[in-house]
Design brief:
With about 400 residues, the chain is α+β, with helices and mostly antiparallel strands. The protein contains 11 helices and 21 strands. Bound molecules: flavin-adenine dinucleotide.
Length: about 400
């Protein structure tokens, strides 16, 4: 019987384990994690509700090496997949959630299945190295204990939200072994802006938001922005963060259009009617926002439109990995074969956020984690089934 060691019990590791656990006669599956309990980050997703996939998977919703993998990412369908695990889903527009709107339900369905099929969980084990020994892999943990395996799955995530377990250590490990890893950046993360409006902390605004790079429009999205002490957060701001350039010397700005559902003519008539009021934006915007945009006083419809529809804030950075939802960057797909096996290390696979693929908000990252974990699990299964048949014949 082959031993498969899966490092990381996030969605990618769980998805790989699900495939392998279906043949307990062929495999002993070991799930290893530095955390006490599995799926810690999964439980935090979607504010605990877990936006686990999207009905409209498109390549432009991903960044990095998506072109190399898009076909099978798109072929993965969350509805039958989770139905098989006994998890009911609900769609909110294109966004898919567990019917309970509890991330815990997703984890429970996986865990019940895996436990029943004899998967062994090895908690509080931080893997610091792996070596090849007589055709098998030896994993070494931080207490210098060894775990032997015939196949190894690296599902340790990226560097985002370290407090939930993933700190980029597996990426560092493979990089030191000569595997090419692209530069890592925090993504889906709060933006720091200049100016920052401390007094607006906690204020939410709805509108359309754009990212400009050296005055050129990069992208835009409709949604909500939340002001923070040093910048902006909220889904729209996180979404824009995926498109930030990390080149030095580039000026980046976000533009807030807080009247995106009004016509220019409506804004002009509004100004004509209320221009004599000391606080002429009171009827249009939340008081705290209005008082910022009315300083200095608005003297023409053109100024009103410019301030309300083209409010620009310079982006001076992000709040970093600890506040990010995902990592942009990871193992380059050129380092892997079509089934996500490392070309340098036959028998070692990688899946999930550890790879150089990241997605926008909207369930795209979890979708990628399930799809890539499934692909790896199926491949190991297929390889061993073939070897088993050969040995019988
Ligand atoms: C707050 C938050 C909300 C999010 N919401 C959503 C959402 O609603 N929808 C969506 O699509 N995406 C969401 N994401 C992104 C999504 O959670 C990740 O992309 C996804 O979890 C990646 O899965 P993974 O299995 O590759 O890695 P992870 O989930 O990061 O799991 C990696 C696991 O490996 C373990 N590990 C790492 N290194 C080692 C080591 N050396 N030894 C042992 N164990 C190790 C870690 O402890 C961790 O448990 C969110 C992320 C955050 C932080």
């Amino acid at each position: 019987m082959d031993v498969v060691a899966i490092v990381g019990t996030g969605p990618a590791g769980l998805a790989a384990a699900k495939e392998l656990a279906s043949r307990p006669d062929l495999f002993q599956v070991l799930l290893i994690d530095r955390n006490k309990k599995p799926g810690r980050k999964l439980l935090a997703t979607g504010n605990g509700k877990c936006n686990l996939s999207n009905l409209d998977i498109r390549p432009e919703k991903y960044h990095g090496d998506i072109d190399a993998v898009f076909d099978w990412v798109n072929q993965f369908k969350a509805e039958p997949y989770f139905q098989d695990l006994g998890l009911c889903l609900r769609a909110k527009g294109n966004l898919l959630y567990p019917y309970s709107e509890q991330a815990q339900s997703v984890l429970d369905c996986f865990w019940n299945d895996l436990k029943e099929k004899g998967v062994i969980y090895m908690p509080e084990r931080t893997i610091v190295d792996f070596q090849v020994n007589k055709g098998r892999y030896v994993l070494i943990d931080d207490k210098n204990q060894h775990i032997y395996a015939d196949h190894l799955v690296l599902a340790g995530g990226g560097k985002a939200s370290r407090q939930l377990g993933s700190d980029g250590s597996l990426l560092e490990l493979v990089k030191n072994k000569g595997v090419l890893v692209s530069k890592l950046y925090p993504s889906l993360v709060q933006l720091k802006t200049k100016p920052a409006y401390k007094q607006l902390k906690g204020t939410r605004v709805h509108g359309t938001f754009f990212l400009y790079r050296d005055q050129q429009l990069v992208t835009g999205c409709k949604g909500e922005v939340l002001f923070t002490e040093d910048g902006v957060s909220g889904i729209a701001a996180l979404e824009l963060s995926s498109y930030l350039s990390h080149e030095p010397g580039v000026k980046q700005e976000i533009e807030l259009n807080l009247a995106d559902e009004l016509e220019v003519s409506q804004l002009r008539s509004y100004f004509q009617k209320w221009q004599h009021q000391t606080h002429c934006l009171d009827g249009l915007l939340a008081k705290k926002i209005a008082s910022i945009l009315e300083d200095p006083p608005i003297t023409s419809a053109k100024t009103l439109i410019s301030r309300v529809c083209h409010w620009r804030l310079e982006v001076i950075g992000t709040r970093g990995f600890d506040f990010a939802q995902v990592t942009s960057g990871g193992i380059l797909l050129q380092e892997l074969d079509a089934y996500l096996m490392l070309k340098r290390f036959p028998g070692v696979y990688a899946c999930g956020e550890i790879l150089n693929v990241d997605g926008d908000c909207g369930g795209y990252n979890l979708h990628f984690a399930w799809a890539s974990g499934q692909r790896v699990g199926r491949r190991i299964l297929q390889t061993c089934e073939m070897a088993d048949e050969e040995s019988v014949s």
